[in-house]
Amino acid sequence: MSGPIMSQSQIVNVQFGETVKIVEPVNLYGCSIGSDCFIGPFVEIQRSVLIGERNKIQSHSFICSLVTIGNDNFIGHGVMFINDLFDSGRPAGGDKSKWKATLIGDYVSIGSNATILPVSICSYSVIGAGSVVTKDITVPGVYAGNPAKLIRKLIK
Amino acid sequence: MSGPIMSQSQIVNVQFGETVKIVEPVNLYGCSIGSDCFIGPFVEIQRSVLIGERNKIQSHSFICSLVTIGNDNFIGHGVMFINDLFDSGRPAGGDKSKWKATLIGDYVSIGSNATILPVSICSYSVIGAGSVVTKDITVPGVYAGNPAKLIRKLIK
Amino acid sequence: MSGPIMSQSQIVNVQFGETVKIVEPVNLYGCSIGSDCFIGPFVEIQRSVLIGERNKIQSHSFICSLVTIGNDNFIGHGVMFINDLFDSGRPAGGDKSKWKATLIGDYVSIGSNATILPVSICSYSVIGAGSVVTKDITVPGVYAGNPAKLIRKLIK
Question: In the beta sheet, which residues pair with residue B11?
Answer without folding.
Answer: B28
